[in-house]
Structure formats: C-alpha cells, structure tokens
C-alpha cells in the first residue's frame, strides 16, 4: 500500500430523511458522516545527528493539545455524572445532559468529522515529483458515496438537500463561533467565586469550540461537494425503514392526520411537514449500518427533535 493511501481516510455519508414536506419547506434529514481512518504510518528513524527535543516539546502531550484537552474535559464531565446525589456537580451534569439533547443534531453530526483524516478537498500543495503525480491520480479517482433510500428520495434530491443543509449551517456556525468567542472574556468576573469553577466561561469556550468544529466539518463537506467528489448512491436496504414506518403510521393515524395525508398526496401547499419514520423503524437503519452506541444516540436525538420541530 502506498504511503499516500495511508495518509488520508475514506468517507461515507448516509442520508436518512425524517420528514416529508411541500416546497419551500425544507425536509429534515439525519446525516451520518462516517470516516474510515487511514492506517498509521511507521515513524521514520531519527537522524543520527538529531538533537533531543526541547523542553517545551517534552512537556506537550504526544496526542496534541486539543485532543488532550478534549479527553480531560470528557473525563471530568463523566466524573461529575458519578458524583454524590444532591451535589452541585451532579446537578450541573444533569442540566448539561438535558441541554445537550436540545442542541441541533446537525451540529453534532458535523462536528464529528475529523477533517485531519477525511478525504482531501484538493491535492496537497506540499507534494512534488512522483509523489504529487500519485496524489493527483488518487484524488482524480476519489469518490465519497452519499447513501440514500431510493424509495423516498432520488440522486438529485439527495445532493440538493445536502447542499441546502450546508448553506444553512455554515453561516450559522460561523456566527455562533464568533459570538461565544467574544462573550467568553466577559465571564472573567465569575472566577472570583470560590470552590465552584467558572462555569459560564467553560460553557462559552465549549460552545465556541463546538461551533468551530461543526464549521470546519461543514466547510470540508461543502468543498468536496463543490469538487463533485460526493456521489449519490442508492441503498435499497434502507427502504425497510420507510416500509415499516408506513405501516406503523397508518395504524396510529388519527382522522385529522389522515386528512393531512390526503392533502399531501393532492399536493396541497398548506399541508404540514410529516414524519416518515418511527422510532422502531429506525432500528433497521441502525442494524443495517452497524451503528455504534454514540451514533444510535444521535439518530434517536434527531428523531425526537424532528418530532418537536413539526409540531
């Protein structure tokens, strides 16, 4: 395997429409951006005359400052969830978990994209000679499949919905990043409160980081889309999600819901967006895509938010 193939990973995007709506209302779609990490490169042997790293390099964490800080924060947050009943740490943890459930599921999906290991949006500029020729040949063949259920969507619709999502999220996350970054210094007076850490500052810093990560992910996917590297790919196994949901929704439909469904079929522009999945039917997608526990949690959060948005 060439060194080039080992430096970037592969990506697969799965689109699961959650609602159906008449234009100009936007369809709510859950996207699963799955990265296949590249194989690690063997570290080259150090030169014989190399000098030992400096004091600063020895003190910095090997996994990088950002990854180290993220791990520390996750560890601390998990520890707060195991605090004694009635303690302020446990109360803050429970409040934070409820707040996380209310965050847009689109933000959570985009910020999971590891841009460093994702397929590149162009040929790396630091390559030359045979290595650059190899990179250009590999990038020319690069394809990122956009998997969608053919029973409820089409290739043009899948691309259009992804494009609309990115056009909406990029300015939103850019604005959110700058707002929280500028507000964070204003929370400095809370540092004088004894015992309890400066929660407002940590909240603003975390929200700025979250918006920044989602912004990076959205821009990366948008660049791949602009380069025509994202290819719609139908997957009939996902159709089971909607076949089962149709049966479940018909059995649970009330007379008013039935009237709305009739109006939707007639093309009425006044019809409201409607769910086309159920919690149980999404289980097919989770099994077919072999989702991890955190991905399952993301799907269920998206379903709950979609239900609340169309009410």
From TrEMBL:
Transmembrane stretches, start-end: 177-206
Gene Ontology cellular-component terms listed: mitochondrial inner membrane
UniProt record, GO biological process: potassium ion transport; proton transmembrane transport
Organism domain of life: Eukaryota
Pfam families named in the record: Mit_KHE1
InterPro entries found in the cross-reference section: Mit_KHE1
Keyword terms of this UniProt record: Membrane, Transmembrane, Transmembrane helix
Annotated protein name in UniProt: Mitochondrial K+-H+ exchange-related-domain-containing protein
Annotated source species: Mycena albidolilacea
